[in-house]
Amino acid sequence: MSNTVSTNLTPKEIVSFLDKYVIGQNNAKKTIAVALRNRYRRLQLSEDLQKDVMPKNILMIGSTGVGKTEIARRLSGMMRLPFVKVEASKYTEVGFVGRDVESMIRDLAAHALSIVREDQNELNKEKIEAYIENKIIEKLLPPLPSGASVTKIEDYEKSFVKMQKKFEKGELDHLKIEVELPTPTIDVSTAGNIPPEMANVQESIIKVIGGLNKKGKKKEVTVKEAKKILAQEASSELFDEEKLKDLAIKKIEQGGIVFIDEIDKIAVPANSNSRQDPSKEGVQRDLLPIVEGSNVQTRIGMVKTDHILFIAAGAFHLSKPSDLIPELQGRFPLRVELDSLDAEALYRILTEPKNSLVKQYKALLDVEGVELVFDEKALRSIANYSSLANEKTEDIGARRLHTIMEKIVEDISFNADEFAGEQYTIDEVLIEEKLDKLVDSEDTTRYIL
Question: Which residues are within 8 A (CB) of 134 and not within 5 positions of it... i.e. 6 or more apart?
């Protein structure tokens, strides 16, 4: 696809891509880049050797807001890999309230299927457009009956070509045609802990009932609206659903990434006597077979988790990685500690990334016709105040910038209509007015920033 890059990237190229979005954290970037490159290397080996080369799962240790999730999310998006982020704390031992651990693989399967479907739509864009064009023109210019004279066939062909040209220019978009609406579907995969077998039965019943109730339901819409409706129809007509499922399973098994956040919340500190500890240890034991490699039944078929890359992350303020059960520790051989963000790192996060906060706020106010300008000293001041607020209260990393920036641009954002067509400069004096008293008082900082 046009918005993707090759999966055959060297570790240096992967790190170079991540540098556009995540500042610092070079050790974490390097570790993940090597882990992803090893996947490519494994696929070049003989089938016998491929089975024995297991992914080296990663444990990231660092405070919130330092870029743990962002690194994994950006990589999966760049390479079009199935990716799911889950919180370890929402899973509980069977018998307690919560989701079963296998649901993370079922979520991954749903994401993989949607990626494969989008990729196939992009690859077969011309076929889909031709299908839509023919369907719409046939509605506006019904085909001739069999046995029509040669003259009528020639006239029809000329008219069809004229219609095609008008269609391409968008001259038919305002015309109304009658199309058959697709049968609405209900996604049962999001309904908590329903086993896959039960979900499949429910889905079949929904399809049958939907088929009885909705079959043949037609609606008059404009040609422009019909294009979107017929795109879904074209996709289901042109692609074999079973083949898409097979492709999705292959994509998961060779390139799936599961990001398990808050893994420290299920660690049991050595000095803990909490009643919830057995439940926490139960979650770890439930996670173990998934991470180790097992077969999970999903709506698209049986998925082997042997070569899925698992990235676990946690702050580990109240516990240590060694507080996890030994079997689970052993399944995360790569440990990487992420650095806390100082004022210099926060300044770079404000200004350097492709999607930096400064660029976002400038673009938002540009919509109102206001040219927002940040003075260099003002940006340094924002970074310093953010760092100070993180020191005085809980360290929430780069997320502190969001709170502080919102506080600074609050007034101009509210009164933007009064400054339309003008330049508005945010300088160091304005920053001090807005933040000095707030950051000086620890209690105020806790509640407001």
Answer: none
**CATH homologous superfamily for 11-115+248-337?**
P-loop containing nucleotide triphosphate hydrolases (3.40.50.300)
CA distances from 229 to 133, 172, 177, 180, 232 (A): 12, 16, 12, 9, 6
- Comparing C-alpha atoms, which of 7, 12, 87, 17 is closest to residue 315? 87
Q: Give the tokens for residue 77.
A: 């998006």
**Which residues on neighbouring strands pair with residue 334, listed in sequence order?**
58
446: its two tokens: 């806790």
Q: What whole-number distance in Å separates Cα of residue 283 and Cα of residue 231?
A: 43
How far is it, in rounded angstroms, from Cα 174 to Cα 8?
Answer: 46
Divide the 449 residues of the chain into consecutive groups of 10 and give the mean pLDDT of each group: 57 89 88 88 87 88 86 81 87 60 90 90 85 82 77 82 82 77 55 56 61 61 80 80 90 91 85 61 88 90 92 88 90 90 90 89 93 92 88 83 90 90 90 78 65
The dihedral over CA atoms of 350, 352, 353, 356, expressed in degrees to the nearest 10, equals 30
In angstroms, the CA 304 to CA 297 distance is 9
d(CA 28, CA 146): 68
- Domains of the chain by residue range: 11-115+248-337, 117-247, 343-437
Q: How far apart are CA 332 and CA 335, in angstroms?
A: 7
Query: Cα–Cα distance between 362 and 395 in angstroms, integer?
Result: 27
Residue 175 DSSP class: S
Give the DSSP H/E element, type plus range, for residue 434.
helix 428-440
Q: From the options 2.40.10.220, 1.10.8.60, 3.40.50.1370, 3.30.2110.10, give the CATH code of 343-437.
A: 1.10.8.60
Tens of pLDDT, residue by residue over 354-388, are: 888 999 999 999 999 999 999 999 999 999 988 88
The whole-model pTM stands at: 0.78
